[in-house]
Amino acid sequence: MTWKRVLAVLAVVVVIVAAVVVVKVAAELQRTHTNAAQTVTPTPTRSAAPKPDDVAHTVADHFCQPDVTKNVWQRSLTPFLTSDAWQLYSAVQPGNVPCAGVHDDGKPVGDQQTSTDRAYQFTASTGGPVTVTMHRDTKADPWLASYVNAGS
Hints:
Blueprint: H1 3-39, H2 52-63, H3 70-77, H4 83-89, E1 100-102, E2 107-108, E3 117-126, E4 129-135, E5 144-150
Antiparallel strand pairs: 1-3, 2-3, 3-4, 4-5
C-alpha cells in the first residue's frame, strides 16, 4: 500500500468516526431534551384564597375563647381582622367575651353578600349566635373581619 492510499483510508476512517460522533451527540441531545420536557416539575399554582365563610368561622372560633390569655387571643385574631377591627378589639379582655364553643354551621345573613362585604352567623355552645362581618377593599384582597357581634 502506498502512502497515498494509507492517508486516503485514514481520512475515510476519520470522517466516519466524526459522523458517528455527531450522530451520537445529536441523539443524546434529542433524548435529553425529550426527557427534560417529560420530567420537568410543573410550576406550582397559587393555592386558592380562603373562602369568606371559612375565614369568618376562624374569626368566630378565635373570638369566642374567653379562657385564653389576652396575648394569645389577640395574636390568634390579628391576622384575620381589618385595621379598624383590630383597634376596636385590642382593648377587649377575652374573659369578657360572652360566647364559647363556636360550631361550624355558619350561614350568610343580612343583605351584605356582595363581592366586598359579607356577613355570617354561627351558633355558639355558650352565649348565643355569633355574627362576623367580612370585608375586603377589592376582589383581589383577602377577606378580613370588620366586626364581630357575639351573644345576644
